[in-house]
Structure formats: structure tokens, C-alpha cells
């Protein structure tokens, strides 16, 4: 019971504090790795990748997945609902003062502070993932290769996933020393 | 004619089912189903909901759904739209998560996910780049960005606490700037 309550609060917080789309929730999901150990950093990137290519909003997919890792189906349902409860409350509040909302000084001020903070938090997660994953020459070369491709490709994640998956397979079968 | 709660739920469930690759895809889908087919809201509504959804916390797709549901049938409509949009993730992820656990025991699948995990770093980087253009607009945003990195990376302060500190700092900064302007 206590786990469910913590789960609800953690994902409520995630929904309340993340601004700027689904990826903005990743810092909060990463934080749960060290705080609760519900899943590992590797499992988190697995979840992110699967969430991106599964139907449904990416942010909700990721939360559902993370919830599932903690306590199965109940956890999945709790996490996805907890994530959107803040949306519900905020939208009801905003809808009442729709017109004034946009031009309000305090609303603008809070938003102007939230955006760079969200950007900073995501940068830190990127650095942490880098530290967790780029541990040998293989991973470094693959990262560099994908980075160079990102100048040519646009943000379609599928390109990167297909190439990276292929690279993993290639290493697996051609370099037995690479295997886990 | 009153739009039924069940209808709202079903429409948003179908919307979620076709949503692939990020929340922004919801816009063309909503245009097709909610505006052109159902005529529940107008294009102006959608533009406004989208703008608002980006400027409040939370998942953008969830915010837009809630705004639309609220417009259609108030609080219950908002809840129905929201439940509709989260139904697809709940069902699809539970199915996939169950299978994935078994798949990951196979060693070449692990190798695939080793590669995909590195691709996730690039996607995070691209996402930061995208947020960067809308976030870093003045001196204050640079200070907050640098402060966030310091608090989170070096002092290991939790993201929620960092956000609260950033908001308080931002408010104080801007109120002070506003005062200076008036004087």
C-alpha cells in the first residue's frame, strides 16, 4: 500500500513539474533510479526506446512503463493516472480564466523560469546517460556515428533506432568478445 | 445535441491509438477527427488549446485532451477525454512490458538494446537542442540553466526541488526587473 502511495506521489510530481513535452519527464524518471531502485539506468533507456515506438503519447507511455516495473499492472495504472492528474487540475483552473491567463505577469514569469530549468535538467540526464553507457570504444564509436548522422537526419527516432539496433547485432555476431 | 461522455472517451481512445512518435502528432489527428469529422471544436479552439498546453506543466497530449473534453462537457468531459488518451498507453505498454522481460533474456536482443540505448542519448540531445531555442532567450535563462546543471549534476539535488528553486529565483529576478523598469 505504501509503495502505491509513493508511486502516485512521484508521478504526480513528474506531471506537475515537467514542462515542454514527454521528454521533459525523463529527469524525474532517472531520479527514481537512485531514489527507489525500481529499475536500472539500462532498463530506463530500454523503456524510453520502447515508449517512443509504441502508440500513445510518449510521456504517458514512459510513465506507464516505469509504473509497470515497480508493481506490475496496478503500478502501470497508478503511474499513468497520477501523471495526468496535475494536467486535469491545471486545465480546469486555466479554463476559467482563459483570456487573462496568457498575459498574466506571474504566469509568464513562472514559465520563463521553468523552461530553462527543464532544459538544464534534461541536459544533466543526457550527461548521466553518457556516463552510464559510453564505457568502451564500441559505444563511443556508435555514439559518434549517430551524432554525425544527426546533422543530416531530422528528429525521427526510427532512423536512429534502426541503425543502432543493426550496430548492436553486427557487434554481437562479428565480435564475440563484445557479448554480455 | 449533447455530446455523450462515452463518445468523448472513444474518440480520445482512438486518437491515442494512432498517436505515434511524440505529442505534436496529436495536432493533425485532432484536426482530422475532432474538427473535420466530428465538428466538436473549431480550428481556433485547437490553436488556442495547443498554445496553452505548451505553456502549462504536463504532457502536451494530455493537456490538449483535457481542454477539449472540458469545452465539450465540463469536468466530466475533461475526465473522459483524459482517460481516453491514457487508455492506449496502459494497454499497449502492459502487453509489451510483459513480453519485453522475456525477450531481454535472449542475448542478441540485449545487444540490440545496447545499441538502442545509445540512440536514446542522441534523442535526448536533440530534444535539448529543440528546447534550447525556445528557452534560452535572455540573461536570466542562462543563469537558471547554469544553476540547474550545478544543482542537479554536482549537488545531486532532486529535479522537483531544482524546479521549485528555479521558479522562486525566476520570480524574484523578474519582479525586481519590473520594479527597476517602473522607477
Structure notes:
- The complex is a heterodimer of chains A (180) and B (183).
- Chain A is 82% helix and 0% strand.
- Chain A is built from eight helices and no strands.
- Chain A has helices at residues 2-17, 26-36, 41-52, 58-96, 98-103, 105-133, 137-152, 157-174.
- In chain A, helix 1 crosses helix 4 (58-96).
- Chain B has 183 residues and is an all-alpha fold.
- Chain B folds into two domains: 5-103, no CATH class; 107-182, no CATH class.
- In chain B, 83% of the residues lie in helices and 0% in strands.
- Chain B starts with a helix and ends with a helix.
- Chains A and B meet through helix 1, helix 2, helix 3, helix 4 and helix 5 of A and helix 1, helix 3, helix 4, helix 5 and helix 6 of B.
State the helical fraction of chain A: over 70%
Question: What structural class do you assign from the helix and strand content of chain A?
Answer: mainly alpha
Rg over C-alpha atoms of chain A, rounded to the nearest angstrom: 19 Å
Continuous helix count of chain A: 8
Termini separation of chain A (Å)? Answer: 37 Å
Helix content of chain B: over 70%
Oligomer: heterodimer
Main beta sheet of chain B, described?
none
| Whole-number tally of structural domains of chain B | 2
Integer average pLDDT of chain B: 92
Largest β sheet strand count, sense and barrel closure of chain A: none
Q: Outline of chain B, from the CA principal axes? A: flat
